[in-house]
Amino acid sequence: MTVLEAADVHKRFGGVVALAGANLELAAGEVHVLIGANGCGKSTLCKIITGSVFADRGTIRLDGRAMRFRTPSEAARAGVGVFYQELSLIPQLTVAENLFLRRPPRSRAGLVDRRRLRREASRALERFAGAIGDIGPDHLVADLSADQRQVVEILKVLVDEPRVILFDEPTAALDNRQVEVFFDLVDALRREGRSIIFISHRMDEVFRIGDRVTVFRNGESVATMHIADTDKDEVVEKMLGTRIEAVERRRDAPKAADVAMRAEAIGGTHFDDVSFDLRRGEILGLGGLHGQGQSSLLRALFGADNAFSGSVAVGGEVYRPRGPRDAIRAGVAYVSGDRGRDGVFPVRPVFENFVAALLTRRRRARLDRRALSAEVGAVGDRLKLRAASLDALISELSGGNQQKVVIGRWLVNEPRILLLDDPTKGIDLNTKSDLYRILDELCMEGVSVVFYSSEERELLANADRIAVFNGGRVVDLLEGERVSELNLYRAAFAAEGH
Amino acid sequence: MTGDGQSQARPRFEFRRNTWILAAGFLALLCAVNYFLQDNFFEPGVMVSNLTTFTPLILIAIGQTYVILASDIDLSVGAIVSLVNVVTVSIMHHLGGDALAVAAGIGAGVATGLAAGAANGLCVAALRFQPIITTFATGTVFAGLALWILPDAGTVQAPEPVWRTYSASFVGVPFVIWSLGVVALGCWLYSRSRPYLTLMAVGGNIRAAFGSGLPVMRTRIAGYVICGLFCSLGALALTGETATGDPLIGIAFTLSSISAVVLGGTALSGGVGGVLGSVLGAILLGLISNVIFFAGTPFEYQNLIQGVIVLVALAGGVFVSRGGAR
Asked: Cβ contact (<8 Å) for A72 and B212?
């Protein structure tokens, strides 16, 4: 019996197509897994079902009746609960208050019944007893660790006793024991006849807990299979689709063997035990699904986050930046795709945006505008920058040209190591190919690049080697022949060797 | 990521939940200093008279607290107080000053406060205007209305029963104490209600509150309306005390109400704190003026010293809460 059905759902965000015909059928008492690469539309579909995003086209049916929830609370009242990837807890309130935020138990006088609130919260927490430390109903959520918060978030969904539950990556921050408890819980929910949509990036979990799996690719649902009738290889194949053909490699691996940067067992906020040798003139790709620690690693290497543990050497010398300033002086540059946050000084001229990092490197008080203009102009030409003049405000440029200026800022600086954090996010194809060409040229000149991209094909076409991340660790290092889309997917979804 | 999964939740620092404790400490200190300077300070008559003087600010600060807890701010409270004052006094005066006129004046005053709060709430929460600018602008409108209704201070007086009642006692307990008792009960009941929990959630993290299915817009509007209600109560207390209509009477209350709230330990970022702290903060501000007066500080230094004491008290609060958060 079908409880929830999504038919031919379409959604665009501006020029970006998030969903282009998604179909889903959720049967009563089943655990239905959604799987797919970055940005394939799984989370968007969940948001549409629960009313936080509106579909452009398509229908959602609950018990056979077409529904269109306008807010998450309407969905909740209809018995549809959702676990959010970006948590919905209020840090200043207690665990108990958070659990029953929408409907705290009330006394006869209509006031919040504190004692019952605490008691029911304790009972809810018991489901994870022994796996989450000694947190009680009165602890402030602000004091909890990431995994404990995630558990509270899971329990918060369950207190409403929804018939349909959407879990969007509920296990991301949990340790093994907590995942086991969670799966026992999901088993129990399934036995009670509740229907569950489960989004996961861990292939093991898919096969451990799912009844059926629907694979998403580029905003479309491409296949629904019974878990019992399929295997990991088939799921990966469906994710890849027909384009198994090799992506054309654009350059040969560098011959130079000397190491520009060596990282030994470094760890930080979202990554752990990462080691690599970055060779001179090489592009080392960082692969894997979005948010598996790649960006955190790059930011830490640039000194923009908390210090990392373990050791890093640049050019044979110990490298331990206390801030971006140290990194810049060691010849390390960082370009982020998040231009608004990390790169651009919006209402300042192009010229100032160009020379920002140079000032740090050269420690010079006086700006020789004419000499600098010549340097900057040359770099601008090389980047094929399209700007009215160096005095134009950078906010008047297109996104792609803004990104060129941010990259140019570092070229003026003649870096030895370039850290790229998803640098082509939201820029046009022409700018992208200009960027790839420049990367090639830089590598020929001996610059080494660490390149994270959320687009697999971009990595495959440009990187000499790819370190694939999963859960903050490097799970595979693809070299030579093994650099392929299939291997990248298998490693990213931990579908190897089964 | 999985990290220190089993890490014990740290024992919570008391200040985090009982944010008013520090204000209480300061208050005790200030009372001691005040007693040293003014030896009849603890006599009931003196205490009641002090409390009577502080009551308007106490009430207005309570109103401001609810807005700030929801992570908004109200810069129009002073103007609302002025407006309610002139509306109340004018109506009482024009209707002849009998019991019915007094009741009508009070009713109109409270209605004015509620309406002003609703206007603020609609602009900020429904139309999503920026709270600081919006309430600054609406405050200017309210102040303009007050001046239009009553251009000159002191030309209209409140009828005698008003100030007589305000300074009277019932069953041996002064009217002011009764009023504050009723307010305290109301605040306590509210703090145990579901809407209050929602208010704290909205102030704590508005997106998470929305995602959890809470009525965010309605809650923010309610914060402003409650603030308007308390402004009208504060204005009525002020009217009882001064017995006159004055279109500029409320001006100073805007910033002093915010000072009282912050001194009381409520975070301007929302979601942390409560009205008890604001009450203590309001008394604290009043006592500081008292102490400066009784210490015989030359007039020209009084503002300077008052400012420094408030700054020290604030800094103390900041340091303590930072220490606790680590």
From this structure: yes
